[in-house]
Design goal:
Blueprint: E1 6-9, H1 15-27, E2 33-34, H2 43-53, H3 60-79, E3 83-87, H4 96-105, E4 110-115, H5 118-131, E5 136-141, E6 157-161, H6 171-184, E7 190-196, H7 201-208, H8 214-230, E8 239-246, E9 251-258, E10 262-266, E11 271-275, E12 280-287, H9 291-300, E13 304-310, E14 316-322
Helix pairs in contact: 2-8, 3-4
The chain binds N,N,N-trimethyl-histidine.
Amino acid sequence: HAVPPTFDVHLHGDWRVRALIDEVRSGLTASPKQLTPRWLYDDRGSELFDEITRLPEYYPTEAEREILLTRAGEIAERTGADTLVELGSGTSDKTRALLDAFDEAGRLRRFVPFDVSEQTLKYAAAILAERHPGLHVHGVVGDFHEHLADVPNDGVPVLAFLGSTIGNFYPDERARFFGEVADWMTDDAWFLLGVDLVKPIDRLMAAYNDPAGITAQFTLNLLNVLNRELAADFDLSGFEHVGMWDPNHTRVDLRLRSLREQSVAIIGAEVDVEFGEGEELRVEISTKFTREQIGAELAAAGLVVEEFWTDTAGDVGVLLARR
Ligand code: AVJ
């Protein structure tokens, strides 16, 4: 018997456009210019990211899948979890192996996918409830910087944050987020975190400047999002994709570079934005970690790493931490 999914919806109506307007007003009038990566993932952007994950040069998705496939049983046994919470769940592809392993271990009662997109979440919840009879799927539509405290933490929960998404956060945001995770966690809770590891620059550059140009399409699509959502008049041929390695922050830095001096009207945000020739707009960072670095940051939030697994090639890590 399938248990019908339930939902908590914390984000309503025009929340997205309002947040975008705020960011455009502050981020595009500042110097250097920057926006957060969340705007990259409209329907087209999500499709392009999916294509990126299938590129031979883009190792993180397959590497993490390998870890989850080989360690899922161990994770289920070790934690004894009755609840799996997945932050930024999207279509919950990443958690399939985990859910199957938890099914087998026989203790999982509840799955809580957490995402900003109500539509994606409802779709995923319906499929998962069908696939795992007896599992209560409780979807939460929210922003994990704001609504983590509202996620149920009773019983024995595992809070999963996979896909190297933590790499998108700046150091201060990471510290704040780990603090919020630690606050949410009880002594019985576990934190399952996926991180990308520091590796030679040529591999990173190949993954973020792929020869097929899919990553370039992905970052340039941001300008389509601004054109559509805010009635802006970005000319995509006036910008190019730039992916570089920032050794000081051990992160890939993805930017759009203006090929000429130009002015863009962003009607929906009531601003005009000037770009100089060669001026860059940062659209995403992708931080790479060492095991020591991520362990120290978690420790600073009061969390202790109990397990740390990598894929065979040692490209990405998945760790299990507790209070
Ligand atoms: C989805 C944030 C993990 O940082 O590797 C891939 C996004 N951007 N190629 C990453 C991304 C360009 C990706 N994350």
